Amino acid sequence: MNSEEFRSFAKAAVDYIADYLENIRNKEVLSSVEPGYLHQHLPQEPPQEGEPWQSLLQDVDRIIVPGLTHWHSPHFHAYYPTANSHPGIVGELLLSGLATISTDWHPDNVCVALEQKVLDWLAKLLHLPSHFLNTSPGPGGGLIQNAASDSTLIALLISKTKKTSETAPDAKLVAYTSEQSNSSVEKAGLLASTTIRLLPTDEHGALRGTTLLRAIREDIASGLTPCSVVATLGTTGTCAFDDLEEIGPICKDFGVWLHVDAAYAGAAFCCPEYLPLMKGVEFADSFCFNPHKWMLVNSDCSAMWFKDVTHAEKVFDRESSGTHFWQIPDVRRFRALKLWFVLRVYGVEGIRKHIRKQVDLAKYFEGLVRRDCRFEVCRVSLGLVCFRVKGDDRRTQDLIDRVTQRKKIFVMPYYFREKLVIRFVICSRFTEETDVLVAWEEIKSQVEHNLDG
Minimal CA–CA distance to 143: which of 127, 158, 154? Predict the structure, then answer.
């Protein structure tokens, strides 16, 4: 493919993406294809000769898109947002087109420098303590990881190395997190060969200091060595916030590494009104959130900061490397470019407007639910509403089954305080009040089938 063919192909692809996003509201959010669908449409052997690019775009439209879940549909209300924006898309295109990878300062000084700059911008945008800045006079700093899962693993590896150097290489280490934390914490524990204790939470789904202190004392008495705590700001199930003001001093007193996972909710801290949710963050040794969830930056882009990077350097820096490589791979893509694009095109106020609009839409949905006596609202936090049909869990399960089968909207179940609830999240940047109302009408139309049982 020569440059002229590339220009035509790329322009047609951009037009296709623009049309897809512009009309995504009209597509069923969940695909109706059956397992094995793609194998029926593709040949068993790879093509012997190259094909014209036009046929590729035709097959994307004919074969691929019909089998997709449309994560950016305004009818997608499951999980949490996965970010997408026009500047994010263009940034992704350019970082692929420039095709540079970041290794260290010597060949890639602009890549590293831009990443340090935009991470400082992000830290300031989120009102994080100044000791996390790359430009701070202290040893703090930040960089981009693949995902919050990577950040958790990295924090556990660092805390493990730090603690064994302070105690003994054969110390039996234990780390703590709440029972509401993401399953990636347990997976990170397996990879880091560190026992993870899942601690109970309060009635709001938050891990409290008294619970942590009790567990640490029990484990020390049993001959174990506490090494780290993974606290969550915005849990996966109910968007609960662990109490950092209580947890932080305990971690400090026992020399335990405190990692804060704010994958989804961290973006909200750009709005001053949500800053009370992260009180105590100054105790964190590391902090991460995902701009690729709620901050309009296409995946993958997870921001991670350290209070003192020297602990990370002991684990990850190679002798031949420069600084700023506190990660699993030796190289990484120039992801700072798309983050830079989004921050410049939207600006601080544009990002705040996006966050506040989605929170307001969640409040609008909450109001609709509360005005219907057949339902109860169980928890509301930022862009998430957890609700259920009153009565036995079977009624809520039946509603979930009916809605899922019809594929008009997409929601997820969750058990909260031993009750089955429906998680309804404002995910798409295209979602408007009319889309929320469409979702509510769909839910009401299906609940009417199961209230006589």
Answer: 154
